[in-house]
Write a structure and sequence with these properties.
alpha/beta, Rossmann fold, 7 helices, 40% helix
Length: 245
């Protein structure tokens, strides 16, 4: 991991940009994080490029830092500054065409769009976690917050350092990922926007039902994809405070 810039935000938050090879990322740490007092880490999931989503990402990071955690994110494959594959571009176009015609995208289209993303992104997240936890001011346990929910589900299955996850059911889920969800055992806090125009609500409910966790909470609100109420973040913060300490 190579640190490419560092600046101090309000409230003493330190923001560092970094790169993992060609993968850009951002790390936010509270002012009290140090070698003698390392803090737990929350990985901030999202659906796109860092530059476009920065206002939302830094807002979420501020919430994590206010609770005493560090927060970090990396750019997804095919988003932002990273090159998109022709197959992914075509799958995204096919999905948008189905939605524009008022149809439910086929499982084949969802698989073509989501599964290659999961296969590439999950190892990248794990590699980022390796390097981040080598920083002396950071420690486990680790949380994962946000989407893409299929990526988060796979991570919860294969990454033992993630102790709890707050997930956003706002993206399409392949049937094979729903089957993988039965192997998830960590505590979960799942946010669902009931009227999300770009999400398959029933698939989200099926995924929640499939999770094998003994502690899992579904937090549903009326409204569309971008209509998440601010108080929903307070409940997510309390969830991570319980499980990451």
């Amino acid at each position: 991991m190579r640190i490419t810039s560092e600046r101090r935000l309000d409230a003493g938050i330190i923001e560092r940009t970094f790169s993992l090879g060609e993968i850009p990322g951002i790390l936010w740490t509270p002012p009290g994080a140090s070698v003698s007092e390392p803090v737990p880490l929350i990985l901030v999931g999202h659906p796109g490029g860092l530059r476009q989503l920065y206002p939302r990402l830094v807002d979420r990071a501020r919430g994590s830092v206010a609770e005493g955690f560090a927060a970090a994110t990396i750019e997804l494959p095919g988003s932002g500054e990273r090159p998109a594959s022709a197959s992914t571009t075509q799958a995204r176009a096919d999905l948008r065409e189905a939605l524009a015609e008022g149809e439910r995208p086929s499982e084949e289209v969802v698989d073509r769009l989501i599964l290659p993303l999961v296969e590439q992104a999950v190892p990248e997240w794990r590699s980022a976690l390796d390097d981040l936890l080598n920083l002396p001011e950071l420690r486990g346990p680790v949380g994962f917050s946000g989407g893409v929910i299929a990526i988060a589900t796979r991570l919860a299955v294969v990454e033992p350092r993630i102790a709890a996850a707050g997930l956003f059911a706002g993206s399409f889920v392949p049937r094979s990922i729903i089957e993988e969800a039965r192997r998830v055992t960590i505590p979960l806090h799942v946010l669902l926007q009931w009227d999300d125009e770009g999400n398959d609500r029933q698939a989200a409910l099926d995924l929640f039902d499939a999770f094998g966790s003994r502690e899992k909470t579904l937090y549903a609100n009326l409204g569309g994809h971008t209509g998440v109420p601010r108080f929903a973040g307070d409940d997510a913060a309390r969830f991570f405070a319980r499980h990451l300490g």
